[in-house]
Amino acid sequence: MALSDDKMNWGSAIPSDVITQLHDHCHSDGTCEKAWTTDTTVIVDSNAGGDMYAGELTIEILDAQFEVWSKQGLIKVIQESYGHTQSYETHSYVSEYRCGEVACNPSEKRRMDQWYGSSSANIQFRDGDALRGFIRLKVSVHRKGIGAGSGICAQLIGVGAAVAGAVAPVLGPAMSLASLMCLAL
């Protein structure tokens, strides 16, 4: 079992609870769904009072193969590893919920725990030298609706490219290149 050393903010999603969802996304035929998302609330810039936003935590299964009888054990080991107190940190922040760039209700402050856990895991079940099963996964988080290459970011850049192309044909391709920035969000 190996958890990555780099910790990331899972937001309000408790790592061991999210990992429990592997039961629903890994199947008895020894395969897992490529990825799934779960809602989370993320606080950023906590030193400055913290902005809070609705986010999506994505669990991506990079590779998985296991015999039916080993599925429960593999998932349990990953869940316990993410649930072990040395594999995560919890910080409690006071923040205000943001609606775009403006606080929705500036007088309403919320206290929320943020969970920092490993961004990837690799577990293998071996019988001597024989590999009997494994699951490798990666975790990422982004603002809800502004995922890699989709959602609001891609739509806004696309509209901007169309308008710029109509006004000044040279700007259309430049705006299309700007759409690559959406992949970084």
Give a summary of the structure in a few sentences.
The protein is of the alpha+beta class and 185 residues long.
Q: What value does the average pLDDT take?
A: 74
Question: Hey, roughly how much beta strand do the residues contain?
Answer: 35-45%
Q: Structural class, from helix and strand content?
A: alpha+beta
SSE string, helix = H, strand = E?
EEHHEEHEEEEEHH
Number of helices: 5
Low-pLDDT sequence parts:
148-157, 175-185
Number of individual domains? 2
**Biggest sheet descriptor:** 9 strands, mixed
- The total of beta strands comes to 9
Structure, explained:
- With 185 residues, this protein is of the alpha+beta class.
- It has two domains: 2-144, no CATH class; 145-185.
- Helices cover 26% and strands 41% of the residues.
- It is built from five helices and nine strands.
- The chain has helices spanning 15-20, 22-25, 71-83, 151-167, 171-178; strands spanning 2-3, 7-9, 35-44, 51-66, 88-99, 102-103, 110-118, 120-127, 130-143.
- Strands 1, 2, 3, 4, 5, 6, 7, 8 and 9 form a nine-stranded mixed beta sheet that branches.
- Helix 4 packs antiparallel against helix 5 (171-178).
- The radius of gyration is 20 Å and the shape is elongated.
- Mean pLDDT is 74; it is low at 148-157 and 175-185.
Sequence-ordered SSE layout with sheet pairings:
Blueprint: E1 2-3, E2 7-9, H1 15-20, H2 22-25, E3 35-44, E4 51-66, H3 71-83, E5 88-99, E6 102-103, E7 110-118, E8 120-127, E9 130-143, H4 151-167, H5 171-178
Helix pairs in contact: 4-5
Name some characteristics of this structure.
185 residues, 2 domains, 5 helices, disordered C terminus, alpha+beta
